[in-house]
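Continued from yesterday's entry.
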Amino acid sequence: MMSGATVARSDNSGAVQYPIVLVHGLSGFDTLLFVDYFFGVENALSSVGANQVFTAQVTAFESNEVRGEQLLSYVQDVLALTGARKVNLIGHSQGGPTSRYVAAVRPDLVASVTSIGSPHYGSDVADLINGSPLSPAVSGIANALGGLIGALSGDPQQKQNAMAALASLDSAGAAAFNVTYPQGLRFGACEETPWVNVGRWWWPQWVKDYSVNDGAHEVNGVRYYSWGGTYNAITNSNALDPIDAVLAITSIVHGAENDGLVERCSMHLGDNIRDDYTMNHLDQTNGLFGLRGLFTTSPLPLYKAHAARLKAAGL
């Protein structure tokens, strides 16, 4: 199923040159029972002049490579439909590695890859599940859930493979994937973000320098970007959002700053825009109807700002 927004607006601050393709993560979908995975994101992007925005549908539970081949086919369909030469890929969670795969095997079709909350170095949650005797049971439940998601989102023929998905998302699987597809990865070990003075000594302006965790900004003509968030279950949750209760539990698994599912240090790719927005993993896509904690970062302005960033880069 191909869904997209093509809307003309007077605000052209984000009028990118190439179509934007949004790529969902694990257990994701394009539209499920009339609810978008990227809730309100297509409209937000089109409101700033990104007139060609599409949301891909790939298998909910599968390996990066299988999902990547599905995404490549979707990208080719978008190019045929629009007449464009390339696309800008924006992937959430596993959508990040999925997008990286396409950019690696067909860089001629990709202008940029942006990952949001993606586990480029694996997820401790996936490590825990894979190392548990309950792994087969969890896999069976996930496969059934994925089949239901596929059916309700208009693609009942999807073949789910939760074990392959977990193998892609744990630390060992991510490391193996990174050996084959290293484009845009962070240059070295994860560092604490330093504060730097961008003002004068007599009028200091202290800002965080997120570039210490950058990877190559451009590889084979493809630009790479990333951002993500960190989550405090006590101060950043919304009592009306049941997913927050789940993420409050999974966040405990991590030994470092995380968004509930992915550690901050696993999110870095290319131009590390910021890795500590106050948001959890689901909030990054404005999920569950946009419900979020009172003092958390609103995600839609981030997408608008990124469209402007892509436009400024000629993408």
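--- second protein ---
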Amino acid sequence: LSTGEQHLQAVCDRFTLELDLSPEKPPVVNGRDGISAKGAGAGQASHYISFTRLGTRGTLEANKNTQTVRGLAWMDHEYFSEQLNKNLTGWDWFAIQLDNNEELMLYRLRTKSGEPDPYSSGTFVDRDGSAHFLDAAQFSLSPGATWHSNHSGALYPVAWSIAVPSLQLSLSQQTGLEDQELYTPGSVSPSYWEGAVTYKGERQGRAIAGVGYLEMTGYGQPLRFGE
């Protein structure tokens, strides 16, 4: 792992997946000076490291047929010093790989009033791998069309509009599969939505597209922090 290269294997009754991941950019340390603040309280922070563009190759074996697969992956590793603020009910987190070799990570912490928490933030990664911190005032996340889960009863916004004016970047997000909820009845972990999404938009006046991963928590029931 000293070079960031990784090998992943998943095996079940129906398929076997093996992947080799190799970083195309250096790791990103999110936040300011290596600290990703999540609140004003002492210790309400995390260390948060990302590999935002991992070249991926491997094989998928299913029904006795083996196919070669290739693509891009993203890996996050985050660990906290303590739980989040009690005033928070959940978050919306976006990992975006654009087709011009740039990446964007954004997260919005949601308060009980429904407003975004000022400690929401993000990171923009340019073509050469340099990372740029974005505070909550530098971007906007606007929910659009929703999907209702018949499993949990939650109503999730599965379409979003994203704007980062300082980067001259605007994106419209959609998903080809609305039901990507992780339904966890009887678990200590509440159900939440986590899955693949696509993007179209403009960057500095030019058309752009991308793919990504979206995680949304606290829509079925508020998450309980610090209790």
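The chain has one domain: 6-216. The two ends are 36 Å apart (CA to CA). Will compare against the first tomorrow.
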